[in-house]
Amino acid sequence: MSSAQTPDDSLLDEFLEDRGHDTQTWERSYNKKQCPECGGLHDVNATDCGVCGWTP
User: Fold this and answer.
1) Are 54 and 36 in contact (CB under 8 A)?
2) Ramachandran category for residue 39: left, alpha or beta (phi over 0 → left; psi -120 to 50 → alpha)
């Protein structure tokens, strides 16, 4: 499965953001998840950021 965004994904994200929804998700850095808010690195099974408390 590709992780690249398609034009349809971008359109859906824009639609949701216009209505107050947060569409951010974890970024990937090698074999770790990276928080988009603070840049903290976490194991792949993390569900929230232990540094700043961000959740997807």
Assistant:
1) yes
2) left
* pTM for this model (two decimals): 0.56
Measured distance CA(45)–CA(32) in Å, rounded: 9
Total of domains in the chain: 1
User: Does 46 fall in a domain?
Assistant: yes
Under a CB-based contact definition with an 8 Å cutoff, are residues 31 and 44 in contact?
yes
Matching residue, tokens 């824009």 = 14
pLDDT tens digits, 1-56: 345 556 677 777 677 678 777 667 788 878 899 998 899 999 999 999 999 998 88
